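user: At home tonight, take the chain set out below, taking as long as you need, and be ready to discuss the fold:
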Amino acid sequence: MKGLDEHINESLDIILENETMLGYDLKSMLKSFKEEKRTVGYSFGRLCILHYEAFTERLDKDIYKVAAAIELLILSFDIIDDLQDKDSDYSWSKTPELSLNVALAMLVMASKIIRETSFEHKNKAIQILEEYALGSINGQQLDLLNNCRDEQSYIQMIEQKSGSLTALSCLIGEVLAKGEISSQVKEYSKYIGIIQQIKNDIQGLKTWGPKNDLLNKRYSLPIIYLLSQKNDVSKSVKNYYNDDIVAVLDNNATENELTNGGAIRYAITIKNVYKFKALSYLENVAIKEVGKDYLKKLMK
């Protein structure tokens, strides 16, 4: 996928350089934030390109601009998320007021870039962008409220927050290619986002530091499972989450319970449920093997 990342990055450079409505300071910050994003790759833009290529025989190079637009949208959401959580080491967290303006500029630019392409179905793509972006924002709101404390409500929240963004990326590629979207792509692309979020939740609990969800009294699938148990560790965690009770966690005992008491295994099991759901839909979509391999990798 290295070649796709290079195309997307080149398109981003050209777009940012040619944007006349941004002043020097704003544009400089945007460029520097883009460079930080570059280190983790452009996975959402890749999803867009792969799904465009899957459903068309004629490659319009404007697809790289669309992929760049999607990456700007994703980066704007990442910045806003980090500013809300106040837990990031990225440079945008050092100047939150200025960085918020950069994020707002990216949001506006995303639809503007797509509108300026030559695609016949660009208006449908913009409609998908707006619809699914709003869904993700609603999911982010639910996440910040921290009220999703059971499996069903938590899955619904991450389906909106994360699933909307992976679905947005895939469906825009598909609709630009053929003017319509399919239920199969809609379903498995949403599940990929759920899978990725669960993986992040599991990984985030393996480091006991300022970003740890449990230490910050946040909810995720492993924590929901732990809180449902009836043992000394779960009782101490419940007390810790109860702001009316002064409680200190035994980090070693809690970490051991998460790892060996079934919480992590439970989250992995839920992740695999969505993996098999996604694979069942993917089976019926005519995507080249290299594309399917990449999608399956995201489901692991």
Remarks:
- The two ends are 17 Å apart (CA to CA).
- The chain has two domains: 1-181, 183-300.
- The mean pLDDT is 95.
- DSSP finds 13 helices and no strands in the chain.
